[in-house]
Description:
With 470 residues, the protein is mostly helical. The chain has helices at residues 10-28, 35-52, 57-91, 93-104, 110-125, 128-146, 150-167, 172-181, 185-213, 220-233, 242-252, 257-274, 286-291, 301-307, 316-334, 337-348, 352-370, 373-390, 395-407, 417-426, 430-433, 438-453. The protein has a domain at 73-315.
Amino acid sequence: xxxxxxxxxxxxxxxxxxxxxxxxxxxxxxxxxxxxxxxxxxxxxxxxxxxxxxxxxxxxxxxxxxxxxxxxxxxxxxxxxxxxxxxxxxxxxxxxxxxxxxxxxxxxxxxxxxxxxxxxxxxxxxxxxxxxxxxxxxxxxxxxxxxxxxxxxxxxxxxxxxxxxxxxxxxxxxxxxxxxxxxxxxxxxxxxxxxxxxxxxxxxxxxxxxxxxxxxxxxxxxxxxxxxxxxxxxxxxxxxxxxxxxxxxxxxxxxxxxxxxxxxxxxxxxxxxxxxxxxxxxxxxxxxxxxxxxxxxxxxxxxxxxxxxxxxxxxxxxxxxxxxxxxxxxxxxxxxxxxxxxxxxxxxxxxxxxxxxxxxxxxxxxxxxxxxxxxxxxxxxxxxxxxxxxxxxxxxxxxxxxxxxxxxxxxxxxxxxxxxxxxxxxxxxxxxxxxxxxxxxxxxxxxxxxxxxxxxxxxxxxxxxxxxxx
Length: 470
């Protein structure tokens, strides 16, 4: 029965956003309280508002379950990435990357190199999680050795990882955005280059000057100690590249993500056993590295801290925070609070510039309220598609804008599954790295700038815009 439900007012709809900002800004930012507790607090406040609107606990529970179901594929990938990191560490694949990275990369070009390499890998694989969980972990290790500020390093890695997640034809979000907006995949990708490439390139310029200013900060004794410790612990051989090659092959041939990661992890585990000489079972065994992660026992603190990573169980903290975030998001969505916020934004959209700004604001609002990459594309895409048709604007303008303001904004939200994942994987809190991930928010600026100037805004040329060349 729905007749007793009240439509939330604008003020009531803003309460969830205000509560989560206060809870996280004060509770986490000042008092360092657990994020799970704070998210549940915000969910409780949202639930009280929903009760006053006439929703029952069972209806709110249904909303939470629906929200969880949308986020479950991402959470499954996160857990399998934990397995991937643990076995790649045990096999020596990531330590070898760290070793040669320390040997080759100049400190002054570290940030540029990290961003570019992560960009290339993410374009080829189409996954930001997989990129950050493999080469990203290696680059964080290199940053430790070179005394690069870790928030800057993490920001460059996140920006690079999401460059491919945004424009790769293998990426789920890149495929989802044109579906939500009603455009064509390859037209969408080409149109995104207008905002993504300038945002990415501007970020690289800043990374270059940041690195140039930090030149000479390397402590060679520390670097030599790390390199020597890694070289004494692992045997290096070209076979250590087999696990990464499996991931690349699976991505290029469009195989399912999780099975490809599992096969790569299994290959890495075999290398750890038969080439590195690790025991099969036991606390320090190769199988245990899948579940609990790799445990480094060199006796050198900085190396052990660097290499002790991964494992499915260590990713459960990420999934727990995601569960709490989806509880908050599910209640807010079920009670119609998000719909009210977006409807008010629609009233503002009377010109092309205002329309693009409204789409950007909506995607960011959805990112803040739900922490879901998929919902930042689906909800604004479905809501604004008729407005773009009415104003004779191509649907690829809409699909580009929701990617510019949704896909790449989510990893900057501390309570999103992406934000929590990168924090757990790279060891740097979201609130410390987000402003160094320049590409992720520069794209919003270019999207809105183009909207108000008319530059790179395409008119609608046919009714069926799913046809290539629209």
